Every structure is written in C-alpha cells, then in structure tokens.
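Supplementary Methods S3. Input chains for the assembly prediction are listed below.
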Amino acid sequence: MSQATDTYVRQNEARFLEELKEFLRIPSISTAPEHAKDTHRAAEFVVEKLKAAGLENVELIETERHPLVYADWLHAPGKPTVLCYGHFDVQPPDPLELWETPPFEPSERNGNLYARGSADDKGQMYSHIKAVETLRAANGTLPVNLKFLIEGEEEVGGVSVAEYVAKNAAKLKADVALVSDTEMYAPGLPTLNVGLRGLVYMEIEARGPARDLHSGLYGGAAPNAVFGLVELLSKMKDAGGRIQIPGIYDDVEPPSADEKASWERLPFDEKEYLKDEVGSTELTGEAGYSVFERTWARPTLEVHGIGGGFTGVGAKTVIPAKAVAKVSIRLVPKQDPDKVVKSVEKFVKENGPRGVQFEVRVLSAGPGLMVNTDHHAIQVAAKAFSDIYGKPTVFTRSGGSIPIVGDFATHVGIPTILMGFGLPDDGLHSPNEKYNIRNYYDGIRTIAHFFEEYGK
Amino acid sequence: MSQATDTYVRQNEARFLEELKEFLRIPSISTAPEHAKDTHRAAEFVVEKLKAAGLENVELIETERHPLVYADWLHAPGKPTVLCYGHFDVQPPDPLELWETPPFEPSERNGNLYARGSADDKGQMYSHIKAVETLRAANGTLPVNLKFLIEGEEEVGGVSVAEYVAKNAAKLKADVALVSDTEMYAPGLPTLNVGLRGLVYMEIEARGPARDLHSGLYGGAAPNAVFGLVELLSKMKDAGGRIQIPGIYDDVEPPSADEKASWERLPFDEKEYLKDEVGSTELTGEAGYSVFERTWARPTLEVHGIGGGFTGVGAKTVIPAKAVAKVSIRLVPKQDPDKVVKSVEKFVKENGPRGVQFEVRVLSAGPGLMVNTDHHAIQVAAKAFSDIYGKPTVFTRSGGSIPIVGDFATHVGIPTILMGFGLPDDGLHSPNEKYNIRNYYDGIRTIAHFFEEYGK
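Predicted structure tokens for the full assembly:
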C-alpha cells in the first residue's frame, strides 16, 4: 500500500479505536423493541461518520422497522464502483452474567476489544468507513467509486434491506460488492469466502386424530400425529446422512480438483474439531466426503426442532392429534430452491404414513452461491489481503447462508467479495464477543489497499 | 332382587338424586392446589354418608396429598367379603366456556345429570353407599361383609392409595374387590370389564452435540439430537404398527376362541368408530386383527409427546443438542413389565444412531390383567347385572390401565369386578360430563342385588 496511506492509519489508530468504542456503546439490539431508539441512534452515528469521511448523498432511510443508511462517492470516472455493505445492529447480549465486562462498555484485554457487536459487525463495517477517511486524507481523493448500504436488521432477518435492494437496483449499480462480516480461517491467514450454501426452510405439520385420544382406549387403532411425523422424517435421510428425497442430488456439482486440493492444505485437526467445536462422541454425515466437503459442498437436511403432544413433567397417555417439525435443506450452488421445495412436497405426499395428513409450509427458499475466483475484483482482493498479512490468501466456503449476497447477485447482478477480519474464536452471538484490535487496524489497511489496487 | 329392596330404592330415588347433587357441588379437583380444601370436604362428605348408611370403623386417613376414606361392616360370619373402591376427586372442568350449565351446579336434562364427576366417579361410587343403605333399611342387615376404600387422588396418579394398599394388605383382606368406574359397552347392555392392559411409561432422552450448533456451519458433520431421536423411534414400530423390539411378543397370548367370538357379537360399526370417535381418515394398526384385538389384546407402542430444538414462530437454524420423547408400551396379560423395560433398553442401546447418546427413564411399569370369568364372584356379578337390565351380561376388555386393580391383585391377592354404569358418551374428562339418571338408580339396584346374591 502507499506510504501515505499506511502512515495515516498508524498515526490514527488510537482515535480509530476510540471511535469504534463510542459506536459499540450504543446498544443497538434490533430484536428488542425497547432498543429501537438505540438502533436508530446507531444509524445516525453511521450517517455522521460517513459524512465526516467525505461520502456524499448520505441518506437515513426509514423503513417499517429499523433504518437503512445509504451514501456514495462517484468522482472517479472510468474507475470501477464498489458497493460496501455492513450492519450496525447487534444480537442481544444474554446471558449477561457470563460477560466478564459489560457488553456495551468496550474493554481492552490481551489485544482484543470486548463488546457486543465488536466483530459482528460494527468493528468490521466501521473499518470500511475508516479506510475511506484514510484514503481521502492521505491522497486527497479516492481511487474507486463507492456506494455504501448499511442496515439495522441483519440480526432479525434483513427484510427491509432485501426489499430496498430489489427496488433500487439501478441506484446500487456497481462492479462488485464488498462485505466484511465473515472470519479468517485461522489467525493471520487472509481468507476470502467464495462459496455459500443456500437454504430452504420449512415447517412440516402432521395431523392424526381429530383431537388427542386416550392411548389405552385407542392405542393400536388410531393414527398418532407424532409418530407419523417421526416415520416421515426418518425416511428423509439414511443412517449415513444421505438425503433420500429423489432428485435432490441432481444438480449438485462437486468442487473442482483445485478447490478440493486447496481445502486439503488448510490447517484442520478433526479430533480438535470434534472435541472443541462439535462436542460429541463422533462426527456424522456422508461417508467418503471430508468435513469441508460435507459442510461446504454437499446439501444437508436438518430438523431444527420438533414439538407435539404432551411434554410436561410426568406421564400423560395421549395419542397426539398434531405435531410440527422445523426442517431445512442447505443447498449448494446450481441447486434450484423451487425444484427442491417441489421434491420435498412430492416426497411428503408419497411417504406419509396412512391416517396422518401433512402440510409443508415454506418459510424461506434461497439458492447457494459461488464467487468465481478468476473474477478480477476477487483476484485483486486476494492479492491486497495477502500483501497486508504477508501470506497467500486462501479461498474457503461457508456452509451457512448470507442472503444479501444472493440479493446483490439477483437484483444488481454483481458478485460479492466476502473479506472478513473476524477470527474463529470471536464468540459471535455469545457472551464476551471480541474483535482483535490488530485485525481492526489491518482490516482498515487491507480495505484501503484493495481500493487502491482495484482503482489501478 | 328382593321386593323390599326394590321398593326402598323406588321410594327413595328422588332423595338419592338430591344427595348426589350435593356431593357434585363440591369442586374436589385433585390436581388444583386451590381446591385442596374442597377435596378434603368431599372426603368428609363420604365419611358422613358411610356412617349414615351403617358402615363402621369409618376413618378419614390423611396422606401427603389428599385423604383416603376407609370403612367396614363385618357382621356376616361365613359370608364373603367385598372390598368396594371408588374415588371422590374429579378432573378440572376446563374449558369452562364449553359447558352448557356450570360444572359444579348439577343440572337435569334429557334424563341425564350434568356435572363434573357425575359419572367419573362420584355418581358410580355413591351408588355403592346407597346400595348399603338400601339393604340395611329393607332387611335390617347386610348379606355380605363389606370394606370400603375411597380415594381422592385417582385423577392425579393415586400414589397415596397405592402405598396404603401395599402397607395394609391384612386390613383390606377380602374375597373380591368391586369397582364401579367403567362404562357399559352400549346403553342398556350390562357389561363386565374382565381385561386391562398394563403400561410401561418411559421418557427417552437424546443428546447430540454439547450445545445447539449453527446448522449452516456444522450441518453435514455434527450429530442432531432431534433427528437421532426420530431415527430411533421410527425403528421401534413398522408401518403396520408392529413393534420391532425383539422379544416383545414372546408372552402375548391370543384371546380364546370363545372370547373372540363374544367380541364379534358386540355391536360395532367401524365407520362410525372412525368418524365419531377417532376422527381421522383411516384406522391404523396390525393387519389381520380386529379393532377389539388391536386395542384390547395386543401390545401397542405410542409416542405421547416429543420436544426438542427450536419450536417458536419463524426460523432458527440450529442443530439441537437435546430432545426428549414420552413413549409407552401397553401390555397384555402375561407380559412382564420388567422384561419389557429390559428389551426396550437393549433395543435403544443397539439401535441408536452414531454420535447420539440415549437415556431411558422409566416413569411407571405395571402389568396387564385378566379376570377369570369362571370365578364365582364374577359369575354372580354377571347374573345380578343381567337380572336388573334384562339382557345377558357381556364380557369386554379395556385397552386402558386401572392400577388399583393390579394393586389389589398383587398385595391383597384378590380379583376385581369392574362393574360400571357409565355410558360411552358420558364425556369423562370433557365439558358437559353427564351420568344417566336411570343408570344411577339401576346401578344402586344392581349393586344391592349383587350383594344379596353373593351372600347366598
């Protein structure tokens, strides 16, 4: 990166940290109605800082729930445009008693900054703003055109931003989106996430007898909604974790030999993973596939919850009339969510036990995504990340889903760079969430350097 | 029955009904702590009426929860002794808005008396007391020796009475027990219940990962406690309702050809049963067995409830760490509950999917029972019932369990006559519970007539 840029960051690190602390003191818990004003205050903070960094057309956009913030700077003709996304809302801090220092009083320990939202996502998204400030201060201008779209509902489903993106595709037009809301594979290892799984989330409801029946009097002749649901669900996956719904693997493409080889080079200890992360006696899933393949590159089916009949203390001898399960299928790129939904509906229709009626309710359905690692912006980002951290950038995937990436692809037609500076032990959504302070500063450097390089 | 006895009942019907109404006005809801005093008041009512009927040694026995009442009359040397059992506690009346008249304000309509507890069991047990009064008033003495044991916890598990029977076998010594807490197979059809299923009731808990995991990040590699439980439960029964736990059918004896033939003569319309009682699209259960065989003479396995993971509104993408199901197996006579428990434990150990740990907790385990229809007391009871109603008495079984019958068999070593005067549409445990007034009077007649005949 340019010397001027690097010097500016170095000279302003302390202030950058104080500003982030101020941001983190705002308890912008989007799910809590009593914190709606705080979430609004966080939006106002972002507006103010975007203006101070030299962004223009800064808007606080009210929605039905929490506001969005838009801003841009479009004075680099002939240069590409980057759409920066992030969020200023945070998860609730419960359970409070497990925090070593209060969640909204940022505290420095061991080179980390502890506070709710420090890594997810205030610290990361604020580094975009500080990168802009740095470039403007160091060079008097910006090397690329920039648009910012920052939301306050990421932790509660992101409904408003999805609607906004769908309706404002032209306004958001850009060459690439940049999101810093993921993590590095390991400390010091620059990581770009280039694959996400999609998600079809369903409720499956079973209905047996008209009302709960006495299991003594009717047991043996009456259908049982809970057992009917158990029978149906058990048929959906075999003991090896392979989904039994016909057609589900039709469009699944294996990772390339190169990608598989790159995963094999990632530091990974299956025993530690089992013990420290999963915490069970053994791993499960499809034979013949590595953990990376199983969680990143294979569709999986999970039951997230199930309820029906009597679950209180003691014994009640009912044949339950009704039962419900929450079921999802994670999709890999190329799988069509609508086709998957149809396959599930057909399977349920054909495999439900007699006497039990089923209803499938689809709560959401979004595709998986792959970013082409040959894309120019990805190549530049990987190099910029590598330049700052002094190691080759690794490409990983995530088994999770980030809907905004799909929205940018669908409506704006652009790929997204998932360039995150979090670490695996940051404790997102947990007590004692932290963000590594060195990564905060180096994140600002990496973003600024990426803008510089991408503008060349 | 003797003319004097019959005349006394006829002349006192109106008063008998008013006394029962007084009894029914006491809201002795045993499960509700705020009604503990009312339950006690119901015990005092029973004490008073037993004394008035001429019973001796009347005791109100305090327990850890609700009182028991004991009484006897032992002045018929050389004659058999009958142990009369009943209960004065009732189910909660909820949902209140569905009652046409208030549950604790007895109301006469269409020849029925509507009130909570009218059939279950105040009306039926009170007929025993009125039969004693009748015999003493008409004849100046009683034809048999009598013991009464009446409880106030039947609707909440009957813990105190079970302990009392176990500890007071000598005091309760008798030739036969008499319980009126069941129903006639059809209106006007005298019915003795001569078979009950036993019950092994268990909780099965599944544990997968150490804590709920993110299904995106770990789906495909981590065990899922809910799905593990679903897999295990689904293996316990096949699609035809046959239990798959090895050894479970070893000691199952088919009903005799005579018994089967007698069931085939019972009025039964499978379509009406499906529509009016079960309320589902079709019946389930083992092929080749009639509904009577399936519900009375075959062991069955039911899941009464299941819970685990996220069951709130909307979507949460967790891999649940824990899940629990309530599971019971109904047993037929000759099956050993302990052996069944061991079979289940072995099955769970051998069939649980990998990565998931299971725990089986047994909440109760009691055997099924058959009363020998050749037993003298049963033969006399059948004839007495038949004499009053003018039709041959039918012998039926019940798919349910009445633990006190097992306690009398185990500890006192006596069979129980299940001579009930309820009707299938009495609405036990439901709004608008009723007891047929004609059956109340004829029940008193039948009990008195049985005592007379049994004393001959």
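Chain B has a mean pLDDT of 96. Residues 198-252+299-366 of chain B form a domain with the Alpha-Beta Plaits fold (CATH 3.30.70.360).
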